[in-house]
Design brief:
Layout (H helix, E strand, L loop, with lengths): L1 E8 L4 H14 L4 E11 L1 H16 L4 E4 L3 H9 L22
Parallel strand pairs: 1-2, 2-3
Helix pairs in contact: 1-2
């Protein structure tokens, strides 16, 4: 299940986010992915709700991962040491230098 966040997310949107995450969590037995690509601002209240949802899901043997955080979302995730929740990008191409002969 994927939930997309767009725009600004802070204490003003905390209740809506909490309600949405609770509904999605109870509606199905799948893992939850929260896409942050459209986030223009994210406050700590949003982080708190994401961590609450993650804790609930872990208790149900399910996972919460974050997808494609915008620059501003990535900054806050870095500050809160939560980049481990971000799923690896599948479209990244890694090129290694040739091995010496």
């Amino acid at each position: 299940v994927v939930v997309w966040l767009d725009g600004e997310h802070d204490i003003a949107t905390e209740a809506i986010l909490a309600d949405t995450l609770a509904k999605v969590t109870s509606a199905c037995d799948a893992d939850l992915v929260v896409d942050l690509s459209g986030v223009t601002f994210m406050g700590t209240a949003t982080i708190d709700q994401l961590l609450r949802a993650r804790s609930l899901l872990l208790g149900l043997s399910r996972n919460l991962t974050l997808r494609s955080p915008s620059k501003s979302a990535r900054r806050l995730l870095d500050l809160c040491d939560l980049t481990g929740l971000v799923e690896p990008r599948e479209d990244v191409i890694r090129i290694s230098p040739p091995l010496p002969m």
